[in-house]
Structure prediction request, 109 residues.
Amino acid sequence: MIVKVFIRRKLRQESAMDAFQLLKKLRHNAMNRRGYISGETLVSADDDCELIVISTWHRMEDWVSWKKSEERKTIDAQLEELQEGPTVYEPFVFSKYRLAAKAGFPEPL
Prediction:
């Protein structure tokens, strides 16, 4: 079941450029991981230091594997130092597939 993970970060003003370099590195490394589909970074229209990364994966297990990897943890720890607070992760799935799975239907191909 396809999952979209919304990753919220609030960067410190003085470290935004360094943070964006690390975000690019994270995405580049994620592209080589099993199940990665796409990613995009959105910046708040009201605050240049507030952003959301939307990361799309084939399965929740693929996302969890990437999130728990040492490779990702190392870069994420560097990012946390450049932020005003902790990163917030919110995984979502498409409602019709979630409901179908609960009703016992197989996932679509």
About this structure: The CA atoms of residues 19 and 82 lie 6 Å apart. The chain has a mean pLDDT of 91. The chain has one domain: 3-102. The helical segments are 16-30, 60-68, 70-81, 95-102.
